[in-house]
Amino acid sequence: MTFFLQLAATGFALGMVYALVAIGFVIILKCSNAFNIAQGHFVMIGGYLGYTFLVLFGLPIWATLILAVVSAIIMGLIIERLALRPLVGQSELAIIMMTIALSTVLEGLATLIWGGEYKTYHGLLPTITLKVGQISVPPESLIGLMVSVVTVTLLLLLFRYTKIGLAMRATAEDLQVVQSVGIRATTIYAVSWVIASVVGVIGGILLGGVSGVMIPLAEIGLKAFAVVLLGGVNSIGGAIVAGIILGVLENVAAGYLDPLLPGGGLAQIFPFIIMLIVLIFKPHGLFGLVRIERI
User: Residue 130 pairs with which residues in a beta bridge?
Assistant: First the structure.
C-alpha cells in the first residue's frame, strides 16, 4: 500500500504539470477551434530556456522563471502576429497546418541554438522535501507541483475576475457577439497565444528538472493532447482533473506493469491507451460539452 501511495503522490505532482501544459491546448482551441500542434514544442523550448538560464548563466530559479516567462510572452506575441494573425477568417485546417509548420520551425531553432543535445540541470532547482509518514515527494516533483498549482490558480482567477479573461470566455462562446460590443478579436487571440506559450515554457522548465531536456521532450505535447481529450476539449477544469488522473495512472503503470514486461515502457504509451478508450466510449470527454446539431 505504501508503494502505491508513493506512486500516486509522485503521479499527482506530474499530473499537475500535464494539466498546466494542457490548459494551453484548451485556450487555443476555445478561441480558434483548432488544435495547437506546436504546444509540445513550447514545452521543449521551456526546458532549453531553463538549462540556459540555470546552467549557462548561473541564475537562481526565481530569476530563471521571470526571464523564461518574458521570453515566452515575446515568443507568443511574435507567433501570433507573424504566423496566426494573417490566418484570421481562414479555416481551422489552415490554422492547424500553420501550427504543424511552427512545430518544425521551433524544433529547427532548438537544434540550431542548443545543438538538439540532451541537457540537464538536476539538483539546480530548490530542494524542498515533503514527507508524510512513509510517503515522500521528490524535490523536483514537489517544486513542479507548487509552481503548477500557483500558475493554474492565477489563470483561473484571470479567466473569472478580469475583463480580458471574461472577454476570452465570451470569444470562446460567440466571436461575432464579442466583436459587436467593440472587443478586438486580435487582442484576444494575442493574449491566448501568450498564455499558451507561457504555460508551455513553465511546464518545460519543470519537466526538464525531472527528466532533462532534449528534442523528444516536445512529445509531452501529445500527452497533454490525451489530457485534453479525457477532460473535454473545451473544459479548463476538465484538463486539470484529467491531468491529475493521467499523471497518477502513468506512474502506477510504471510501478506495477512495466516490471512485468521484458522491455518495459508501458507507462510511456499508457496516456494514449486512455485517449483511445475515451475516443471510443466518450468522445466529448469527462467534462466536455455535447454539441447538438439540429438538421
Answer: 137
